[in-house]
Design brief:
The structure is a single chain. The protein starts with 10 loop residues before the first helix and ends with a helix. It has 5 helices and no strands. It has helices spanning 11-14, 18-40, 42-52, 57-63, 69-72.
Amino acid sequence: MKLQDFILYDGRFVNGSSAGLKTILADALEAIIGAIYLDQGFDKAHEFITKFILVKLEDIIAEGSHIDSKSIF
């Protein structure tokens, strides 16, 4: 979704690591889904998830990007 193109963040807090940016983007996506749910209801949130996330689920699982370091620990 290229959320990083639309979010202003202070690079000092990302520390040059992709893990910091991934956390910011994950939090932003979670907030977007929550906002859609609160504003438009469950059906619209489900539609958004289906359109933008579930279509990429196989690739996400195959590349292992759904697993974060904290969960592994």
